[in-house]
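Q: What structure does this chain adopt?
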Amino acid sequence: MSTRKGIDVYNGTGNVDWNLVKEAGYDFTMIKASEGYTLADKRMSENLTNAAVAGLHTGVYHWTHAVTTEEAAREATHFLNLVRGCKMEYPVALDVEQDTILRLPRDRLTDVVMAWCRQVANAGYYVAIYANLNVLRNHLDWSRIKEFDLWLAQYNTQMSSEFPASFWQYTDKGRVPGVKNGTG
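A:
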């Protein structure tokens, strides 16, 4: 298994010097694209372009607030409108960690996640789900979501093997050259 280093950035990260990020040994970035069905990360396009020019592979993610499959479809449509035409080699991911959605029963939240993921996958994108161990163990039905890759948020020195993850976010406190508010 090859190991690649990446970072997660969003509007609140501020200006990123992507050349410094690349020089520091980072290979890819996951960039926030949207949240809910109205919010767009105003730096997404700039970050995608500048990261690619610096030689990093790129992917994007959406932070969901959906509590029904209808809201998930609306959020997926919003997300797809924002990323249409964007060049990415890495997945588009659904970030499943917002407190209000975690109050849903497991089957209902799994329905919401599957609705978003399937709509985006049907539009031709490689989809992953971003979640931590608590969400995976207690809030989602793994047997249903495992058709999509997992971006595991587990802040530890070793990744759990409980769920097969394609991506591992091992910290939320990383410092990355070129990023003022960096996370690794």
